[in-house]
Amino acid sequence: MNYLTGHYQMFIKALQRSHASLLSTLMMFLVIGITFILPSISFLIVQNLKSISENIQHESQISIFLKKDTSADAKNKIEKELKNRSEINSYHFVKKEEAWPKLQKSMGFNDSNNGLSENPLPDAFFISPNTMNPNQILDLKSFIEKLDGVDQVVVDTGWVKKLNSVLHLANKAILLASVLLASMLTVVIGNTIRLQMTSHHEEIELSKLIGATDQFIRRPFLYSGFIFGLGGGLTAAIILKLIVIFLNHTVIEVEALYGSQFSIIDLNPLEYLSIVGGSVLIAVAASFISINQSIKKF
Amino acid sequence: MIKFDQVHKRYPGNLGALQNITFEINAGELVFVTGPSGAGKSTLLKLITAIETATHGTIIFENQNLAQVKSTSIPYIRRKFGLVFQDHKLLYDRNCFENIALPLEINGVEINDIRGRVRAALDKVGLLNREKSMPISLSGGEQQRLAIARAIACRPSILLADEPTGNLDKKYADEIMNLFYSFQELGVTVIIATHEMPIVSKKHKQLYLQDGNLIRMTEQ
Questions:
Q1: Which of A174, A215, A287, B188 has the fewest CB atoms in 10 Å of its CB?
Q2: Domain-by-domain residue ranges, chain B?
Q3: Residues with Cβ < 8 Å from A14, sequence gap 6 or more?
Q4: What values do phi and psi take at A35, rounded to 5?
């Protein structure tokens, strides 16, 4: 009980100190908050791009163009092989005689002005795979390429793959930037706490002389660090939420104009909580390190 | 209660501040540590309160050898002393009440008891009506009394005062000395370091230091 009231007294003391220097406390909240927003927003963007690319992946397909002189026999053989592959969800065959008028129609050609004397298109299979694993897709591609009568295999997920690897890289960059920003925060918070201790050096010196333990001296400064972390984390979470609301508002306007179906994915509550938790953790750890270094000097 | 046995104290790069000091102080005594400035009086008080450690010799306080006390236990030893510092060490950013509450907070006194004990200490030194004043608004004598109130707030069994009447005229000095005598009557051990011979009462034990040596010890 005594221990708890001691902590309570110290917390009140730290609150009073923060209140006495309200402006600098608020500025500290903003510094921590903005530092946390930078990687959080990047994370948000990557999450959103990821979900877009996932949607696109489901529509991706593999096109197999056959050689012009491929016999119906060879074509049937290919079809049989395709049937046996487990990675293939569905496929359909398009004869060149069917494809040519379609293309002409869609491009606005007619027989007299296209300048081509014969149908340039080959027979083709179009496959929807049921996997998005790049290795499996590559395996499938090389398997089909070896089949008799196949001229060319085109996987149109190439750019999705590139986007994915870019996003993967972006995730790593965010992680790295977060580590750098966290160490920057550690230094900033540590310095602020050190300054606080310097401005209270008379009290600390006297307290030590009349029998204060290191824990007693550490406590109010540790609580200051906690308040910085909590305030900064909440600032980050609130600003981030406002940004998402603002962007979604803009998206709705665009939606109304173009009829698109897209809204920004917000962070989930757990992710918001981890921003606040991470902020508190970094601030308390930074204060602890800084206090322990300074306390030896008194 | 306090026993010095052939204690030496040497600061780095300096001549010894104290040499071969041996004496004993019993519980309930009032002892003057006298001698000219620079004789080592303050160093002696710092050795007793474990603010400094002896270079040689042993210091026994309440049957504990101070040289063997763990650093984590030192705060608990210091809490047994009431200290009046040469330079007051009052905190000028808070009022009289808060200055006196600090040692009580350090000692873990319940928040509900702090109020009464601060007022009791202020009453003892006659500053009860200045509870809310800032120390800077007090006169020199009042500041000294405030420092004494802070030293006695935790009801220590030993009171140590370093030059408690320095810079005070005779009237204030007598007031302060009467305070110390009244504490001794209550059973508190009192140790006063001073270079001002007029305030030293002949009725009490006296340790006379000169150039770090204990020249003379007069019993009461």
A1: A215
A2: 93-150
A3: A220, A221, A223, A224, A226, A227
A4: -60, -35
Report chain A residues whose CB lies below 8 A from the CB of B108. 2, 6
For residues B85 and A206, give the distance between their C-alpha atoms in angstroms, rounded to a whole number.
10
The answer to whether residues B141 and B122 touch, using CB atoms and an 8 Å cutoff, is no
Pairing, β B205-210 against β B30-34: parallel
Cα–Cα distance for residue pair B176/B185, rounded to 1 Å: 15
pLDDT for A241-293, tens place per residue? 999 999 888 877 777 776 666 677 888 899 999 999 999 999 999 999 999 99
Cα separation, A203 vs A183, whole angstroms: 30
Q: Are A135 and A97 in contact (CB under 8 A)?
A: no
Is the Cβ pair A205, B107 closer than 8 Å?
A: no
Closest by CA to A43, choosing from A196, A242, A212, A244, is: A244
Tokens (6 digits) for A16:
């009073």
Q: Which of A175, A133, A158 is nearest to A46 (CA)?
A: A175
> What pLDDT does residue A1 have?
46
Q: Is the full-model pTM beyond 0.80?
A: no
What residues of chain B lie within 8 A of the CB of A216, using their CB? Answer: 105-106
CATH number of A61-156: 3.30.70.3040
Test mutation, B61, B89, B92, chain A, max A CBs within 10 A: B89
Listed by start position, the domains of chain A span 2-56+161-295, 61-156
Mean pLDDT along residues A211-240: 93
Chain A residues 180-239 with CB within 8 Å of chain B: 202-203, 205-213, 216
Distances in whole angstroms, Cα of residue A143 to Cα of each of A69, A147, B4, B33, B192: 21, 7, 95, 101, 99
What are B15-32's pLDDT values in tens digits?
778 999 999 999 999 999
Closest Cβ opposite residue A207 in set B49, B106, B111: B106
Question: The tokens of A293 are what?
Answer: 């270094």
Separation CA A58–CA A72 (nearest Å): 31
Cβ–Cβ below 8 Å for B72 and A206:
no
- Across the interface, of A6, A205, A211, the residue whose CB is closest to B79 is A211
Instruction: Inform me whether the C-beta atom of residue B106 falls under 8 Å from chain A C-beta atoms.
Output: yes
Contact B126, B156 (CB under 8 A): no
Token pair for A191: 């310095």
Instruction: Tell me how far apart the alpha carbons of residues A218 and A197 are, in angstroms, rounded to a whole number.
Output: 10
The predicted structure's pLDDT at residue A279:
95
Restricting to A residues 131-160, those with a Cβ less than 8 Å away from any Cβ of B are none
